[in-house]
Automatic annotation (TrEMBL):
It holds the Pfam family RNase_PH. This is polyribonucleotide nucleotidyltransferase. One of its GO terms (biological process) is mitochondrial mRNA catabolic process. GO terms for molecular function: 3'-5'-RNA exonuclease activity; polyribonucleotide nucleotidyltransferase activity; RNA binding. The keyword RNA-binding applies. Its EC number is 2.7.7.8. The keyword Cytoplasm applies.
Length: 703
């Protein structure tokens, strides 16, 4: 399949199949990083469905597609050769889905196979598995049904020699080796030969050496000056950069702009990494295992249902909690529902990263893949502690106001504080931290780590110039989310386990600081918060409550701002954004449903009704002035069959005698008949005093 692509592969598990293609240009791109794009698309046909948008075709990308694309990207990116700056695209398409096996892990393996079968330079293959935990035992690639009962959802991507290149939530590494061996055998059978790139973008040694002579001491001085913050450090380094690059351009007039910039970057990176590896020094003066200064505050703005500000060093996140009705939960698209079985969710975390957070100018609004991914990680960290029976939909917004590393984990911390401030009975507070790595490899074996240092609570520069961004979040008792972004071709399991250990220690320290601000959820929600109550409406009153075509419900919702949903035959759930709105809605409902005059009607009695409207199916009549008109069907007007009431000479405003038979127990409609009065049996005509009439809202169910 897809033989014009540089590489393609189909991976199947059960009856779920994913095809991946790999294409890489042969001309280099003017870039300073690997220009890799991964596109994972969920095809409706693969799930046996038709899209529900107005064009009935796939439009745009869903959150799940973007998150899976990022998952594949993180797995394969570390294994491209350093300096390979050629536009490369991996496209993963669902071919068939059985509803049993999740296709995301298959897509990682399909991308690995496609790259391995292509001539694109790539130091793979990798293998990926999902690990569940059921009945006290780890489970490899569990089915969707098994995952619903699993206490663990962990995706692991492994490189050859049992190294880890990506962790998403180190169980499973040995199983990745079986996949790797299979892909390697397939590549050998296909006799794959890798292409030789026209150029690998690396800094010329002569220029690097010139930069060392010109700038090493000044760069060292900046990186060891602990009075600098993010902005002043960047400005100081940039000043040295500009002066050094001017000299380089004079001495190497034929040099490309990339070579000049990269030569300076190589020197800065070497000095920074040497400080950590050899002198155990960090640029902000902290110990390798130290956490930055943390401050927390909650209940910042009274109108908000919950709020918190979490500050860690120069990373600052403002979180807010909003409650709304269960109807406002996130509804999954039909394809995602078919794949995952999840139809909606009543907890969500939305992460925003505005440009001013890093002293930059840029586009505001919208959402990019990075924001979606960071928000999904923070949401994953908090979701296990959210009560499943909470009566509202919960939205946490995390807006990054300042960023100098680990804003996603700061969002998890701030989100936990805001949830407790809002009175959400979370099972435990949650904290998160990012762990970094500076490593030294052997010149003979660049994939083997000779020496390394693990850094706790990394800064932005430590992420940028380091080898790993390992994010861990959890409670005092355990881990709720893991994500490892690795920039080197694989990590030994020993390093992974040490990173988890360091992160767990830091997590407990952060939780202690957070607990000094607020240690447990507030006993009650704020007074101005939303209210939800159940209202019982008898079947006989349901039609009046709903109104013609739902008119009363729409009027109620527009007037008071409440949301109403039916729970069962006689119960409606009323969500009000505030207690005042609930009180107003209750008065409205009481006014609609009360009917003192109808209670005076006697079963089997005869009343004088006034015709208010002529219809093809019958006439609309009222028994008393303020009553909502009800339909007297043609079949109940006369013993003979008629097509229109006019056949009997009836007209609007005319008074007729009808017999009252109460309300239908199934649909609540009022039952009246005129034809039964044409029998010779004597009847007593009842009347209702207009003085006893009450003002009532119109109702549809009586029609």
């Amino acid at each position: 399949l897809a033989r014009f692509a540089d590489g393609s592969a189909v991976v199947q598990l059960g009856d779920t199949s994913v095809m991946a293609t790999a294409v890489s240009r042969t001309k280099p791109s003017p870039s300073q990083f690997m220009p890799l794009v991964v596109d994972y698309r969920q095809k409706a046909a693969a799930a046996g469905r038709i899209p529900t948008n107005y064009l009935r075709r796939e439009l745009g990308t869903t959150d799940r597609e973007i998150l899976t694309s990022r998952l594949i990207d993180r797995s394969i990116r570390p294994l491209f050769p350093s300096g390979y700056f050629y536009d490369t695209q991996i496209a993963c398409n669902l071919l068939a889905v059985d509803g049993v096996n999740d296709p995301d892990v298959l897509a990682i393996n399909a991308a690995s196979a496609a790259l391995s079968l292509s001539d694109i330079p790539w130091n793979g293959p990798i293998g990926a598995v999902r690990v569940g935990f059921l009945d006290g035992q780890p489970l490899i690639n569990p089915t969707r049904a098994e995952m619903s009962s699993s206490s663990l959802n962990l995706i692991v991507a492994g490189a050859p020699s049992s190294q880890v290149v990506m962790i998403e939530a180190s169980v499973g590494v040995k199983h990745t080796q079986k996949i790797i061996q299979t892909i390697q055998q397939l590549a050998r059978e296909q006799k794959v030969t890798k292409r030789t790139p026209v150029k690998i973008f690396t800094a010329p040694p002569a220029m690097v050496e010139q930069v060392r002579q010109l700038a090493s001491q000044r760069v060292y001085a900046v990186l060891t000056d602990h009075t600098h913050d993010k902005i002043t450090r960047d400005e100081a380094i940039n000043e040295v950069r500009l002066e050094t690059e001017e000299v380089l351009k004079e001495k190497f007039p034929q040099a490309e702009p990339f070579e000049v910039m990269e030569s300076f970057n190589v020197v800065v990176k070497d000095i920074f990494r040497s400080l950590v590896l050899n002198e155990y020094r960090r640029c902000d003066g902290r110990e390798l295992t130290a956490v930055r200064n943390i401050s927390c505050d909650v209940d910042l703005f009274q109108p908000l249902h919950g709020s918190a500000l979490f500050q860690r060093g120069q990373t600052q996140v403002l979180c807010s909690v909003t409650f709304d009705s269960l109807e406002s939960s996130v509804k999954a698209d039909i394809i995602t529902t078919a794949l995952s079985g999840v139809k909606d969710k009543n907890f969500m975390l939305h992460y925003e990263f505005p440009p001013y957070a890093t002293n930059e100018i840029g586009r505001m609004g919208g959402m990019n893949r990075r924001e979606l991914g960071h928000g999904a990680l923070a949401e994953k960290a908090l979701r296990p502690v959210i009560p499943t029976d909470f009566p509202f939909t919960i939205r946490v917004t995390a807006e990054v106001l300042e960023s100098n590393g680990s804003s996603s984990m700061a969002s998890a911390c701030g989100g936990s504080l805001a949830l407790m401030d809002a009175g959400v009975p979370i099972s435990s507070p949650v904290a998160g931290v990012a762990i970094g790595l500076i490593s030294k490899t052997s010149e003979d074996k660049p994939t083997e780590i000779q020496d390394y240092r693990i850094l706790t609570d990394i800064l932005g520069i430590e992420d940028y110039l380091g080898d790993m961004d390992f994010k861990l979040a959890g409670t005092a008792k355990g881990i709720t989310a893991l994500q490892a972004d690795v920039k080197i071709p694989g990590l030994p399991l020993k390093v992974v386990m040490e990173a988890i250990s360091e992160a767990s220690v830091a997590k407990k320290e952060i939780l202690g600081i957070m607990n000094s601000c607020i240690a447990q959820p507030r006993k009650s929600r704020k007074e101005n918060g939303p209210v939800v109550e159940n209202v019982r409406v008898p079947v006989s009153k349901r039609a009046r409550f709903v109104g013609p075509g739902g008119y009363n419900l729409r009027r109620l919702q527009a007037k008071t701002g409440v949301t109403i949903s039916q729970v069962d035959e006689e119960t409606f759930s009323v969500f009000a954004p505030s207690p005042g709105a609930m009180h107003e809605a209750q008065e409205f409902i009481s006014d609609i449903c009360k009917d003192d005059q109808e209670q005076q009607l006697e079963f089997g009695a005869v009343y004088t009704a006034t015709i208010t409207e002529m219809r093809d199916s019958g006439v609309m009549v009222k028994l008393y002035p303020n009553m909502s008109a009800v339909l007297l069907h043609n079949s109940q007007l006369d013993h003979k069959r008629i097509k229109h009431p006019s056949a009997l000479g009836l007209e609007v405003g005319q008074q007729i005698q009808v017999k009252y038979f109460g309300r239908d127990p199934t649909d609540g409609r009022m039952r009246l008949s005129r034809k039964v009065l044409s029998s010779p049996a004597a009847t007593l005509v009842k009347t209702i005093s207009e003085k006893q009439s009450i003002s009532m809202g119109s109702s549809s169910g009586d029609m």
